[in-house]
Design a protein that fits this description.
single chain; alpha/beta; GMP Synthetase, Chain A, domain 3; eight-stranded mixed sheet; 15 helices
Length: 538
């Protein structure tokens, strides 16, 4: 975890000049696992809750080394050279194997690309065509999907190799660690997190070891993560909250990471309540928190070890926050994004203040700067709503294969709106554009509308988010049939299910004669939102 001196303006691996630099200093990528293996080799690093496998920091460090050596051999890298930023995609549920590969990519000089296993083959193929990975590694249960992706992109990504995770693990056994690799520039791309853009096209937010490091330190500062912490991770590792915010923070601080294959309300509550596991930290979306509270086994007394029970991904209703706080559970909302990592958080441990500020996403950590601006780009006063602009060493340098979205001064426009109170606490108001959040997953209407318009029977389509008691919001699709071509609700739903992940598929279909438009022909979605504000998908 050192620095090397370079001339001002000199770029690192892959020609990146985005690393953290002061007066010509360039960061080399920090390696938190190697550090913890040196200072506390026997301390528990991670537990795979699906398999029961447990690794100390020394064991995890050696596993990562062997995995990096396997990558170097598999990518046919010349001795003494790194992987040159070649992409390694992963399709599978949370587990130690995926965690190991993510850190091995850092050591080998590759870029880790975790893929959302909830997506369909056509959706995943689009991501693969954009990232052009050299390897696609799949976990248990995803062989057919991964094979479908490889076959779909054979013409555009001809060198893509398919490998199953078990083969990777077997190939590492008894292998020697890699030596003599060049240092990794902390400003070079390290992880690509895909999130759909408002145009409906997928965008890969780039994270470097610099942005990952500062996201982790920001989260640790806000939420009291240290070497005594035990963090239960249900959040998927294909989201920044999983692979960076939770995993990097816990391992950077020397805590213990419990990797779950996914959220199960009964199992999750049992794990949070189990004194043998000793969970101190947990993060989820508000809908998951509400589900946990509704379980028959919910007992606040059994959650007394919790230091932090955080929510994000969608605004947490103030009433839910207050109910948990009244139970003595340290509920705290926060705010972040694929591009910005950790941006806001509540003062963990101060339950009276959290209750008084229920509905707030909190305060920015020390290294993050925020602005709220109006449409003209001018700062708004406290109490007024403005778009969130964020700047700091935690912010992504841009999107893969796309121009950077930050302005010349480094301010990233989030597209979200918020207001700030007189004490400096921020309250998320809405998305500036049309995106809505269903079960913690971003849904962009333009992508769904494009799929609807694939139907020969559909002339026009419009999608908005409507309230749903289980998922927070779900899609409501308005379709105008072509003249003389009747269309049924089931036909529309079946088509969407064949082309989209289930969380993107509209739960309500409205067959309309026409859609409201402006004089220039633009859809007036605001009118539909007003009309269906009190509607639900039920």
């Amino acid at each position: 975890m050192g620095m090397s001196v370079t001339e001002p303006g000199e770029s690192g691996e892959g020609g990146s000049a985005a690393g953290l630099r002061w007066a010509g200093l360039r960061w080399e990528a920090p390696d938190p696992v190697a550090y913890q293996a040196a200072v506390q080799p026997g301390a528990p690093a991670c537990v795979d809750l699906a398999t029961g496998e447990r690794l100390t920091y020394e064991a995890l460090h050696r596993r990562i080394d062997r995995c990096a050596a396997w990558l170097i051999r598999c990518l046919d890298v010349q001795p003494g050279q790194g992987a040159g930023g070649r992409r390694v995609a992963w399709l599978g549920r949370n587990g130690i194997d995926q965690l190991t590969m993510a850190f091995a990519c850092v050591r080998a000089g590759a870029v880790f690309v975790p893929l959302n296993w909830r997506l369909t083959v056509p959706e995943l193929a689009g991501l693969a065509a954009d990232a052009t990975p050299s390897l696609l590694i799949h976990g248990d249960g995803f062989a057919a999907t991964a094979q479908g992706v490889v076959e779909t992109v054979r013409a555009t990504v001809p060198g893509l190799r398919l490998v199953d995770a078990e083969s990777v693990r077997s190939a590492q056994e008894g292998g020697e660690p890699v030596t003599g690799l060049p240092p990794r520039d902390a400003g070079a791309p390290s992880i690509i997190i895909y999130t759909s853009g408002t145009s409906g096209q997928p965008k890969g937010a780039i994270h470097t070891e610099q942005t990952a490091f500062f996201t982790a330190t920001n989260f640790a500062l806000l939420n009291r993560v240290d070497h005594r912490s035990v963090f239960l991770c249900d959040m998927p590792l294909f989201h920044v909250i999983g692979i960076v915010t939770i995993c990097r923070t816990t391992l950077l601080q020397g805590g213990t990471l419990l990797l779950s294959p996914g959220f199960d309300p009964v199992l999750t509550l049992e794990r949070m309540s189990d004194p043998a596991l000793g969970v101190t930290h947990y993060m989820c979306v508000p809908q998951m928190a509400q589900t946990l509270r509704q379980q028959p086994g919910y007992d606040p007394a059994k959650l007394s070890r919790l230091v932090f029970f955080g929510t994000g991904g969608a605004p947490n209703p103030p009433a839910l926050v207050r109910r948990f706080v009244e139970d003595g559970v340290p509920m705290a909302d926060g705010y972040g994004s694929s591009e910005g990592g950790t941006v806001l958080g509540m003062p963990v441990g101060d339950l009276p203040r959290i209750a008084a500020k229920a509905g707030s996403a909190g305060l920015p950590p020390a290294s993050v700067r925020l602005r709220l601006v109006d449409d003209a780009g001018d700062d708004v006063a406290d109490g007024e709503v403005g778009e969130i602009l964020v700047r700091g060493p935690n912010v992504s340098p841009g999107y893969w294969n796309r121009p950077a979205d930050a302005d010349a001064e480094g301010w990233f426009r989030t597209g979200d709106t918020a207001r700030r109170d007189g004490d400096g606490f921020y309250y998320i108001v809405d998305r500036k554009k049309d995106m809505f959040i269903s079960g913690g997953e971003n849904v962009y209407p333009a992508e769904v509308e494009a799929v609807l318009l694939e139907l020969d029977t559909v002339a026009e389509a419009c999608v908005i988010g409507i309230a749903d008691p289980q998922w927070g919001e779900v899609g409501c699709a308005f379709v105008v049939p072509r003249a003389g071509c009747p269309v049924t609700e089931q036909e529309v739903i079946d088509h969407c299910r064949s082309r989209l992940a289930r969380f993107k598929t509209p739960k309500r279909i409205v067959i309309a004669d026409e859609l409201p438009r402006t004089a220039s022909g633009k859809l007036r979605k605001n009118l539909l939102r007003e009309q269906y504000r009190s509607e639900t998908a039920l």
